[in-house]
Amino acid sequence: MIKSLVFLLEFLKGLWITAKHFWINIFFNFLKLIGFNIRDRGSVTIQYPEEKKEIARRHRSLHRILTREDGSPRCVACMLCMTVCPSECIYIEAEEDPNPEIQKRPSKFIIDLSRCCFCGFCVEACPEDALRMDTNIVELGEYNREKLIYDLNRLVRISK
Amino acid sequence: MIKITINGKNYKVKEGLTILEASKQVGIEIPHFCYHPALESEGSCRMCLVEIKGVPKLQLACSTPIKDGMEIETENERVIEARKAVLEFLLAGHPLDCPICDKAGECKLQDYYYKFGLFEDRFEEEKPKRDKLFRIAPNLIYDQERCILCTRCVRFLREITKTGELGVLNRGKESLISIYEQELIENNYSGNLADICPVGAITDIDFRFKIRTWFLERKKSICPICSRGCNINIHFLSPSFPFKVEKRVFRITPEPNVKINGYWICNLGRYNYHYIDNDRILHPLKRNGELKQISWEEFYEDIGNKIKILIRRKKEEKIGVIVNLSLTNEEYETLEIFFNKCIPGTEIITFGKKSGKEDNFLLTEDRNANRKGAGKYRFKEKKIDILKFLNKKELVIFFGHEITEHCNIQLLSEALKDIKTKVLIASNKGPLINLVDYILPSTVIAEKEGSFTNSQGITQKFYRVLEPLGESRPEIEILTSLAQKSGIWRNFLMTRRAG
Ligand code: SF4
Ligand code: SF4
Ligand code: SF4
Ligand code: SF4
Ligand code: FES
Questions:
Q1: How does pLDDT run across B323-340, given as a tens digit for each residue?
Q2: Whether residue B43 has its Cβ less than 6 Å from ligand 5
Q3: Ligand 4 atom 3 nearest Cα
Q4: Which of A40, A151, B14, B318 is deepest in the core (most CB within 10 A)?
């Protein structure tokens, strides 16, 4: 007897939580509807993709390669990012740069995002500040894997 | 033998050594840049400072000879502090461009900084700007900024090659290494400079920017380019490298062996490694109108049967074998058992690569790795009429393309037309490819195990460094499998056991 009373109590508690959220959401969404700017209260569901969550400043998003003033990539093909990457998704080949001050540049630079775990080690390893993950681009879905392989041009273009 | 004390422990060492050499013998490394075991010590880098009891100032380990009863400290605070200071001076003008420096990963400056340095840069002055792309040789680039003026390169050219192309110009902090006027270093040992430079000041154009050193693995082998048999290290892409790259071998460096090559190898041996990855024969091929890939089994059956029939018909003299001079001793032994002992009557001739110029140091005239070893099994190069030899043969087996260096290829192809079965066993593509019916891939030396006897008569063993490319197999394996199918297997085994 006492046992079933406890169950009933829990059942009513549950009903109460559901009802509470329902009425609070109705209330705030009504306010929103008539023009009040309310962001955090109300519905816990974000209406993605119309609505998007704000990305934190230190969030690690799609990579980009920074460029020098003349537009050439800052990367000197030191391959430290390739060395540190735990997912083994960066591949680089180097070549001679005609400018003796620079000497070395990548002839091939590939990040295979289908393997990337977004750890950000590559950014940390880069001695030239050539690689960053601050584009805030997080919607990277593609219909085939090839499109997830980003080459140098693509990574530089994101920067511009 | 005299007694010395290093870091509180007593040792007995030979007389006449320097402190650095003595410590090395007992297993204590003293950091150094300018000292090199093959060169006169110069004492210019000051990295090897040690404390000697009773001597007020720190002393250079590389140029102080040991004395009986000497008490040496190599790891105490004063010494470590001094090393730190030396490093700080060396790095004061150093560009620290490790990201683009090929030496990074095997650079003494880097290693010692991590071990003893780890200081904050206290210099506020701008680092001096200098020429970073100074050509000192057709194969070498000198970076004036990175040089720490240890003069190893200068001493190498003065003492080892005795050509003296490099010298130190200017004084004090303006000093730099330079060639005289525009005369590039053209000697056959210039490649060693990139190895002995303790930092990345001299870099090899052949290796420049190809790969970072930490992706490479190295294993010992023997240089097959001439009969000297220099000990080498083959640097190849580590099998754990996660990406598919066609090239496996990235450079060759010397492996010290005082009896043969000292600490050096010649440029010919150093830069001649592309054959390991390029132009290789990958699969057994058979010509039936056009070349078709076959399996090894098919080949063993085909040729084994041919040999069997010829033996049954007592026509052994219709089998011709053309041997080269770059096989291993073990392979010559197998050839000897196979053809001379089990199929007596087979005709065997030997051809090596044409001689080249010797250079009075390591490189010999004879460009065959194992002429001495072949000679032991009576495979000797003789002047003979190749066309006459090929006349009326039914089966010829070529080891390598060497024969084409000794005869007119037109005439050879004419002579080969009448021969029913022609087999080529070679690692790389070459002129014989178009003239034979069976093409079998053999392994290169780096993929083999065996031994060579060099021109001095020293027999050296070497081991497999790389996995065989494609379906290639070592000659010894090919011969053994062929023996199984040729109806001589029992005989072959017995002779081999008896031998
Ligand atoms: S974020 Fe991590 S996994 Fe992705 S490329 Fe960089 S290092 Fe590799
Ligand atoms: S670490 Fe930076 S500079 Fe080095 S290869 Fe990667 S992106 Fe280029
Ligand atoms: S010489 Fe050594 S310390 Fe200097 S840039 Fe090259 S790797 Fe770095
Ligand atoms: S180039 Fe290299 S070997 Fe020659 S003095 Fe400079 S650091 Fe020493
Ligand atoms: S190794 Fe002794 S001074 Fe350079």
A1: 999 999 999 999 999 999
A2: yes
A3: B197
A4: B318
